[in-house]
Design a protein that fits this description.
Length: 539
């Protein structure tokens, strides 16, 4: 689709489309065509005045091009976005009208969206999807390996190969009935102006270049760059390109996330007494103060100075008392820890999530519960995701696989050491024997795919660094008699493309709430030490 300038001639660096691959040469500065009052079509021209981020020498070079110059219409400063380097500033009203036009959108995908969810192209309904060819190059580097990102890369490439067939048409390949089309776009080299702003010609900048090309070409509908990379989105937006996060698997908000507990005040005194005197529980219809309880939800029922801890069992539709019990020498120190131990020791609950800040007791409670009920399980498996520091993977560390993993698994050993000092010498030696016989095993999560876990007590620590798909992969490994516990702090995330709303732990809590086999508790108070609690609250 060639663009014409005002005098009817073709632009020197016009874009072209061939077999579904949209190619663009270097981008010139763009202004709005003022040939009609309602026209918002962008024409290729030279810049009228140097944008604030372009050097004078670069501006002089751009101004000396032979492309015809169009005199832009008046532009009130309050209607302009930040200068889009080498592309001309974009009127905000025009950008907003495109986003709210109601027409099918065109989403340009970044590589990290695909590595986060290989099935992402199934979630765009009637909208079209564009894949910059730079993304395919990056996916090619991820094809080999056993990590989750390698799986996503392979799955996505196979899927688009099935969709496209032997040749892509100009419109792209259909994603299915009632859905949009998929096409691959070639953005070309960075423009001289973009090279003057960005420090390097890297894949991120080429993806932005391809997205900007489509944004200038598809003037009759919204074009949006989709990325999990916050910095890439900011770069695109600074150039006048709409950019958004991939939010399909995000929870609505932290304040709406299920906490697993409620405080009910003003309870009838007889109800509190009934819970203490009835081991089998009190029917839900007799406790009218609690509205719409859900399966395995925990309650602090209070009447003045009298209170009781209770949980709702949906199978019998009754509230039962939660007692303060110890597990392998570990005593709960607050109501939330009592709720957590109750769920961890309950064999009818097969999936437990514990969330809370550092020092709240998540990991040590899970370990203590596992050791307490060790006779009911074939093996206790402790795992945590390996999040490399400074982009250095395990291969950079010296030693064999055990030596490479030890620094990452040390927090689990620390918690085991705390437990061993809480119990007798005989029980402490039993923990060491379990480690030596692999009855108690500490392992990374990298090789979980394909396994079938039978009668295991499986603890996954630091689960906030997992993607929703990785959490699904872990849970689907559970065989008969297996119990899985996820612990983590959704506000302490080390993964570069996850946040408190999109991580696997938050996603799991939001999707599993209300299931009879599932229980969740948010631990709010730090119990590690007075100093740790003070630092957590003030620093």
């Amino acid at each position: 689709m060639l663009d014409h300038t005002a005098n009817g001639s073709l632009s020197k660096n016009a874009d072209f489309i061939h077999s579904g691959f949209v190619h663009s040469g270097p981008l010139e500065a763009a202004t709005s065509d003022s040939s009609g009052p309602d026209s918002q079509h962008h024409r290729v021209t030279t810049v009228e005045q140097p944008p604030s981020l372009v050097s004078p020498a670069l501006y002089a070079q751009a101004a000396s091009t032979e492309a015809p110059i169009l005199e832009p219409g008046p532009r009130p400063s309050d209607q302009l976005s930040s200068s889009t380097v080498g592309l001309g500033p974009l009127p905000l009203d025009a950008s907003r009208s495109r986003l709210s036009s109601g027409k099918a959108k065109l989403f340009v995908l970044d590589t990290n969206v695909i590595l986060h969810d290989s099935g992402c192209i199934n979630h765009f309904e009637e909208n079209d999807v564009a894949i910059p060819i730079t993304v395919l190059e990056e996916l090619d580097a991820f094809k080999k390996g056993n990590e989750d990102v390698n799986f996503h890369a392979r799955q996505f490439l196979r899927r688009i190969d099935e969709l496209t067939g032997d040749l892509l048409s100009e419109e792209g390949a259909s994603l299915g009935d009632g859905r949009g089309n998929l096409k691959v776009v070639i953005g070309g080299e960075l423009t001289e102006a973009l090279r003057g702003v960005f420090l390097a010609d890297c894949p991120d900048h080429r993806i932005i270049n391809a997205a900007l090309t489509l944004y200038r070409k598809e003037t009759d509908r919204p074009v949006i760059l989709l990325s999990k990379d916050t910095n890439l989105r900011m770069k695109a937006k600074s150039l006048g390109m709409p950019a958004q996060d991939y939010t399909t698997d995000k929870v609505q908000g932290i304040d709406k996330l299920y906490t697993g507990k409620r405080l009910i005040t003003g309870m009838d005194s007889s109800t509190v007494d009934a819970l203490y005197s009835s081991p089998e529980g009190v029917p839900a219809e007799l406790i009218v103060e609690v509205e719409e309880p859900i399966a395995n939800e925990n309650f602090i029922l209070r009447n003045g100075s009298k209170s009781v801890l209770a949980t709702y069992e949906s199978q019998i539709k009754a509230f039962t008392r939660v007692d303060k019990v110890s597990a392998y020498g570990v005593q709960p120190r607050n109501a939330e820890q009592c709720f957590a131990l109750n769920a961890l020791l309950n064999d009818d609950i097969k999936l437990v999530t514990l969330a809370g800040k550092a020092g709240s007791g998540k990991t040590i409670l899970a370990l203590a519960a596992a050791l307490e009920c060790r006779s009911r399980y074939r093996q206790i498996l402790l795992a945590r995701p390996v999040v490399p520091l400074s982009n250095r993977d395990l291969g950079f560390l010296p030693g064999d696989i055990s030596a490479k993993l030890d620094p990452y698994m040390q927090p689990l050993y620390d918690n085991l050491s705390v437990i061993k000092h809480q119990v007798s010498d005989q029980d402490a030696s039993r923990v060491q024997e379990m480690l030596e016989s692999h009855k108690l095993e500490i392992t990374p999560l990298a090789y979980i795919r394909g396994r079938s876990l039978q009668r295991m007590f499986f603890i996954v620590d630091e689960a906030q660094n997992l993607t929703p798909h990785e959490v699904k992969t872990i849970i689907t490994r559970a065989g008969e008699g297996t119990k899985i516990i996820f612990t983590g702090d959704i506000h302490q995330i080390d993964h570069p493309y996850l946040d408190s709303l999109s991580n696997g732990l938050s996603y799991l809590i939001s999707r599993m709430t209300g299931q009879p086999l599932y229980s969740h508790v948010t631990l709010e108070k730090g119990e590690r030490s007075i100093l740790a609690e003070l630092a957590s609250n003030l620093l």
